[in-house]
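lol ok so funny story. i was supposed to be doing the assay writeup but got distracted and ended up predicting the structure for this chain instead. priorities right. anyway since i did it might as well share w the group, maybe its usefull for someone
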Amino acid sequence: MKSLYLLCLALGSTAFAQTITFNGCHNLFDNQNYTFNKTGVDTYGKGIYMTTPIDGQDCSGLGTCEFKLQWNNTLTRWEFLADEGYGTFTSPILIYYNSTGNNSALNPPGNTIGTWTENTSATGSQCGGNLTGANSTMSGDVHTSMLATSEAVKGKIRIFPNPVSDFISISGIENGKLVQVYTMAGQLAVSEVFDRKINVTLLSPGIYLLRITTKDSQTYEFKFVKK
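and the output, tada:
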């Protein structure tokens, strides 16, 4: 971050466990992914995630970008921060904040949970407003349900067959809105209006994440193997 407009916004990268992937705000930054790795936890047990390399990732040809996702307990919100330019985050710049996600969760909310509000005073409104599933992707170590993921409900939802070669079926859900399939690298491979049968014929063999979003903004995720 060698200047304010370098506030590159693209949360993104590999998919599960200790990594978060974000891609967005293409008006300011190229359509590229940024990798956030979990670097530790704060005194409240909340995860802290930072981009790597910490000083040197290209940012839309404008320089380098460093980002951090962390919990602000004073304001009770998750924050997406940009470094001031030295890789130290001593005077970070607030890009997005989410005050309506699941505050009890130990990891940040996804881009469809609560509201990731754009801090327009820092971005100049060039990110196109709040993060949504339509203008960004965020996958990996994020929580995706306002109810902290009800395992009881998720247990009633099934995807089959698994492994699958052509069509994967979904049962146990009545208010589906959107179905998305992500690679293990966090790349969006399929996105379409909810249907009980999804064509995955063109996917390469491997492990994928199937994400179901309902009309009441609940999100459920399942791994499956494409033969």
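The CA atoms of residues 119 and 150 lie 31 Å apart. The chain has two domains: 19-140, 150-226.
back to the writeup now i swear
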